[in-house]
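From the pipeline queue, job 12 of 40. The input is one protein chain; the requested action is below.

Action: predict structure.
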Amino acid sequence: MKHLILRSLAGVVLFLAACNTNNVTQDDSLKKYFDEAGVQGTFGIFDNAQGQFTVYNLTRFRDSAYLPASTFKIFNSLAALGTGVIFSDTVVVPWDKVVRISSGGDTMHQWNKNMDMREAFEVSNVPFYREMARRIGKDTMQMLLDSIGYGRRYDTFRITNNIDTFWLDNTLKVTADEQLGFVKRLYFRQLPFQNREQEIVRNMMIRERNDKYILAYKTGWGKTEKGNELGWVVGWIEENRHVYFFALNLESTDHSINMAEVRKKILNNILTDLGFFKGKM
């Protein structure tokens, strides 16, 4: 197995819990974007330069845990690279020849082919990352999760026989607070992986880059234990060499919701409301 940096970081992914009331602003004006979409949720953003945190729905952000869904591909990518089961984001993994069909009945051409990790991350290819988890193995994956403390705020999480589904089936749960803390430590290369591995995953998360800002994130979509639709967007935005980390979490009882569109619209509306995208922050 490839060498891993396994210093103890248990608990450090908790972020807001370490903040005091003097640097936390609760902004209830952001509620309108959730109401317009007909969803419940929470949003938090941290201004790293000023040490200031802005959050809507503080209780949900800090205290409510949900399955990470495809945001777990951030961790899974790091684990795959860190253990050497895949050398880089450009190594092509053969398609298993299983034709996947979407819930709408369409053939998922974006999944049904050979691809490297960078493309799999971009199209959120679930079968690709289930294969990565199987290659990593239960014991090694558990060791890495324990080392970082990911998803361990409220209980002792153990992988059983669901090595390739535990982030999708409500076994593993994380708070929005943990998600923000995790991507912050990835950005500053403070996770127990080599700098090269963290840099690869950081770069895979970049979705928009221009002369005004860099926007990086990973999305997630799953179902809660109650069967509700759950969405995530976690990442950061940089303007004028200042970085701001964010986590968006939303939930809906409407199963016809277009989660991909709704989560993106809410994120863009909130960031625009807060003054981003102009290169002035």
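Job complete. Confidence is low (pLDDT under 50) at residues 5-14.
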